[in-house]
Amino acid sequence: MEYGTFKVREGVYIPDVGMDYPKDDPFRRLLKVEVEDSAKGKYQFDETYPYIDKSFSYKLNDILGFFVKWILVAFWNRFHFGIRIEGRKNVRKYRKELKNGAMCICNHVFVFDAFGVNQAVKLFGSLKIPMFAKHFNGKKSWFMRHVGGVPIPETRGGMKKFNEAFDEYHRRKCWFLIFPESVRWEMYVPIRPFMRGAFTMAYKYGLPIIPLVYSYRERKGLYRLFGDKNIPCVTLHVGEPVFFDMDQPRKEETGRMLKLVHERMVQMAGIEENPWPAEGE
After folding, report:
1. How many CB atoms lie within 10 A of CB 275?
2. Helices (H), the chain
3. Cβ neighbours of residue 4 closer than 8 Å, sequence gap 6 or more
4. Starting from the edge strand earliest in sequence, which strands make up the sheet with 84-86, in order?
5. Beta-strand pair 175-178/127-131
6. Per-position b or e across 181-213, b if 16+ CB within 10 A of its CB
7. CA distance linking residue 208 with residue 242, whole number of Å
8. Stretch (H or E) spanning 244
């Protein structure tokens, strides 16, 4: 299916940002990780990485990161990307059910989409976000660490420490965010297949899942002053939480939830015929 020929509800905007999206591999990485020479090998993503960083320098930078996120990035999301958030009430009315944390699931479509989710569901709080490890030796490594990013390890020993860290984050009642599409495709409309890891983690901790979806608007008016006309503005839709049946076996229940959340996100995006299946291989 050619991009743009899939069926959407009336009024759904399909932007053209000049990208040639793959038609056969929904997990192909389209964006290169830019690594400065000074950062090469700075972090090793094994058991030596501080998945819970207790150092003074990290805590000091985290304070700076708070202001960078909630002033500079919030401004950029508001005016360059024109972010609008719809459906916050769907989270607020479940405060009791979400008091011990939640798993946020979202499509991965622009550089500050993770922070947009933060703006929508956890104002001035933080989300813990498993991320592609190589980004943490890239040019955006500082922001990745202080937006809540935790690198997914590259070794078995690292994965043990990673899992222990998330056990502790869950004990602290942190909220998590995972992009189950795995890789970012700029301003892409359809919902790509999901990897199961996010749902396995949510089942392990008994976390409700909050589906969120970015859709797009044509750039008009004052927003033309803050970005190229071909870059759309974004709207983030927040869905109602969905809950696991913890009496059901893990494999069957994570598969059911994956398909349910994918279906809901397709509907929230206004897509009537999504060109991809729910689950990837």
Report:
1. 17
2. 56-67, 74-79, 89-92, 113-121, 141-146, 156-171, 197-205, 250-268
3. 14, 16
4. 84-86, 233-238, 209-217, 103-106, 175-178, 127-131, 149-151
5. parallel
6. bbebbbbbbbbbbbbbebbebbbebebbbbbbb
7. 6
8. none
Helices (H) and strands (E) in the chain, counts: 8, 7
Q: Tokens representing 100?
A: 């011990």
User: Per-block average pLDDT, block size 10, for the chain (281 residues)?
Assistant: 84 94 94 67 89 95 93 96 97 94 98 96 88 89 92 95 98 97 97 98 98 98 93 98 97 98 98 95 76
Predicted structure pTM score:
0.94
Please state whether beta strands 233-238 and 84-86 pair in parallel, antiparallel, or not at all (unpaired): parallel
Q: What six digits make up the tokens of 39?
A: 């950062």
